[in-house]
Design a protein that fits this description.
There is one protein chain. This protein is of the alpha+beta class and 251 residues long. It has a single domain, classed as Alpha-Beta Complex (Nucleoside Triphosphate Pyrophosphohydrolase). The protein is 23% helix and 25% strand. It is built from six helices and ten strands, in the order H-H-E-E-H-E-E-E-E-H-E-E-E-H-H-E. A hairpin with a 7-residue loop joins strand 7 and strand 8. The radius of gyration is 17 Å and the shape is globular.
């Protein structure tokens, strides 16, 4: 497990290495040009953290995802990624709506979002309860899954991953990402403003299926797929042995 600390230089290198556009090509982060619902969501307050995942304050979602035009930095904040499997062991993937501001029209895991500073319950640290409640809220909002089908204790919290990506050079990511697994048959009614497509993939067909996707993967999904996902997927019924709640993974 990789637990080394990043100094200022290594953080800058990480952000630059993940960039998909040079700083000289940057556009202005003009919120008004975006979909009204997505623009409104940028006002939500995320939880800022240090590199050890200790809360240090709050900032709007816009501020947390805006790439600094001079340094290329993105504010580090808390997030989560849910990987949802049905009773047959097939994994749900979604295609993010073209309306999304960060990484629109890309394929990703079932749900990726943030606990909100605005919601006191989602700031709870014990047993990652705040994260679990946020995941329940967003799965309901994005995929229309009834909340009684996704209770907080249904989630398997595996570990945390620190990653960064400067996206289009205007909107990017820099997150301590909590990894949650959930195996359950659920009712889906996707929110078209968030999700344009959902499908279930079989473990033995994952590489072939992704190769045929007509859109790219989100950077966090690609990272987790490359380093951990297949091993976790192969062990859905014994995930406890893969839990690492103490260390933050850095690939």
């Amino acid at each position: 497990m990789l637990t080394s600390r990043f100094n200022l230089w290594s953080r800058t290198q990480l952000l630059r290495k993940c960039s998909t556009i040079s700083l000289s090509q940057q556009k202005h982060a003009n919120i008004e040009i975006h979909d009204p619902l997505q623009a409104h969501a940028l006002k939500e307050q995320c939880i800022l953290v240090d590199e050890q995942d200790k809360p240090i304050g709050a900032a709007t979602k816009a501020d947390c995802h805006r790439v600094h035009p001079g340094t290329g930095d993105v504010k580090l904040h808390r997030a989560f990624s849910v990987f949802l499997f049905n009773s047959k062991g097939e994994m749900l993937v979604q295609r993010r709506s073209v309306h999304k501001i960060t990484f629109p029209d890309t394929y990703t895991n079932a749900c990726c979002s943030h606990p909100l500073y605005d919601i006191e319950q989602e700031r709870q640290e014990s047993n990652a309860l705040g994260i679990r409640l946020a995941a329940q809220r967003r799965l309901n909002y994005e995929l229309g899954i009834p909340t009684n089908q996704i209770e907080p204790d249904n989630f398997n919290y595996l570990t945390r991953i620190h990653y960064a990506n400067t996206g289009d050079g205007v909107w990017g990511e820099h997150e301590i990402d909590y990894i949650l697994f959930l195996q359950k048959d659920v009712t889906l009614k996707p929110n078209a403003n968030e999700v344009s497509e959902v499908r279930y993939l079989k473990r033995e067909e994952i590489d072939e299926a992704i190769a045929k996707f007509s859109a790219p993967l989100t950077p966090w999904f690609a990272l987790i797929l490359r380093h951990r996902l297949k091993q976790w997927w192969d062990n859905l019924h014994r995930l406890k042995q893969f839990e690492d709640l103490k260390n933050i993974q850095r690939f």
